[in-house]
Amino acid sequence: MDKLLALKMFVETVRCGGYSSAASKLGISTSSVTRQVAGLENELGASLLNRTTRNTSVTVAGQTYFEKAVAILDAIDEADAVVADRGSEPQGRLRISVPVEFGRRLIAPHLSRLLERHPGLEISLSLSDQVGDLLSEQIDVSVRLGSSVVSEDIVSKRVGHFERWVVASPEYLARSAALCHPRDLLEHQCLRFDYGGTHQHWTFQSEEAPIQLNVHGRLQSNNADILREAAIGGGGVTLLADWLVREDVAAGRLTRVLEHYEVNPGSASTCINALYLPNHRGSSRINVFIEFLMEILSVLPRGTQTE
User: Fold this and answer.
1) Could you confirm whether the keyword Transcription appears in this record (predicted)?
2) What is the pTM of this model?
3) Mean pLDDT lowest among 54-68, 81-95, 102-116
4) Which domains does the chain have, with CATH numbers?
């Protein structure tokens, strides 16, 4: 018995809900599927499927076997893709992790174009503001904003740059204390991104020495768009990426303040980096995505100009 072929037929039978449907999908006879699955059951000494005249369902043992079989077949597909991935045209699945709002606003609108360019490429896109473990989470490439490489075993490629703007709604600014100098923020409600620490420092670069402020506020979130919405609603002053609030500033929903200062949380940078494992060097899947990402980011407006 061809064990790999039998596994494929068993998995398709479970997914399709019957032998004939699986056979139709695989382009073979129903008897061939039935014979291969029966061979598996004989070898295992266990029933994998419940059969009636009307339908076919998976047994408890069959469900466990199905999950393991799917993992094996996926691993084989991935191994095939890794070998093919050294060719000129990318083949197989690319697992990408990107920050939530960055992915929704800057990546998602362009994904169809990337897939159209490369018919052999499959994309699995995960949205997370947390830096995941590339190896344990099986991430091929992770896009991170303003974070440094956390390990010498990770390759980091700079793909773009952004700015962080201090913004608040016109209504909030009208009813609050003057905001002309960074230290004035100590008198304001600051809507802060939750980086996991108890304190939040905003560092302003001036012509003299950097100004580091431990800002305070009653709202903190690990989602940038929550802070954006709260700021539009008049909840306070927040520090967000320019690409997230640029349209709001142009439309008058938010006002940029302290624009003569470069500001970042703590010692964070303004680089956009693509991170991947060293054994993925030369991967055509990763290379085409990085090139595509740089293409998208290269047309983003810079500075105070709006479009």
Assistant:
1) yes
2) 0.67
3) 81-95
4) 3-84 (1.10.10.10), 92-160+274-298 (3.40.190.10), 164-265 (3.40.190.290)
